[in-house]
Amino acid sequence: MTVRHDGRASAPEPAKRILVVDDTPSVAGLLVDALEAGGYAVDQAGDGAEALQMIRKRPYDAVVCDVVMPVLDGFGLYREIRSFDPDLCRRFAFMAGGADAVDQLEGSGVPVLAKPFKIDEAEQIVRDLLGG
Q1: pLDDT computed for residue 1 by the predictor
Q2: pTM for this model (two decimals)
Q3: Burial of 81 (0-12, 13-18, 19+ CB in 10 A)
Q4: pLDDT of 103
Q5: In the β-sheet with 112-115, what is the strand arrangement from edge to edge?
Q6: pLDDT tens per residue across span 67-96
Q7: In terms of Cα–Cα distance, which of 53, 55, 56, 63 is closest to 95?
Q8: How far is it, in rounded angstroms, from Cα 103 to Cα 107?
Q9: Which carries the bigger pLDDT value, residue 56 or residue 8?
Q10: Which pLDDT value is given to residue 97?
Q11: Helices (runs of H) and strands (runs of E) counted in the chain
Q12: Which of 23, 28, 24, 14 lies closest to 58 in space, CA to CA?
């Protein structure tokens, strides 16, 4: 609950909704748990195709997405989103393992969360995506 300037309580702001996309359940689960503990509403998708269906059904404030996945990889998901919601692409981050993948992505202009990551690094990248 927030207190307004006139002293009356106002309704709390809804939690920012984040979509975590990763085909490795342990990585996705860790990130989901950490973001939920930070007060975010978090949904999880196991690949880009599933994520795309979810994005078309509900708005998301940010997306954190693995690069290498079956069905539709992170790059494919990013391209699809760019075709119908370029604003969401400005709140999109890749997760990647291995120095080569991270180096290639760093020139893309899209934030990169290098695997293995620390929880505070993941939380910071989400705050940065949301402008705070």
Answers
A1: 42
A2: 0.86
A3: buried
A4: 63
A5: 41-45, 17-21, 62-66, 92-97, 112-115
A6: 989 999 999 999 999 999 999 999 999 998
A7: 63
A8: 7
A9: 56
A10: 79
A11: 6, 7
A12: 14
Calpha distance 47→22 (Å, rounded): 6
Structure tokens at 39: 């007060």
Exposure string (b/e) for 44-78, b if CB count within 10 Å is 16 or more? bbbbbbbbbebbeeeebbbbbbbbebeebbbbebb
In the chain, what percentage of residues exceed pLDDT 90?
Answer: 70
47 within 8 A of 70, measured Cβ to Cβ = yes
Superfamily of domain 15-129: Response regulator (3.40.50.2300)
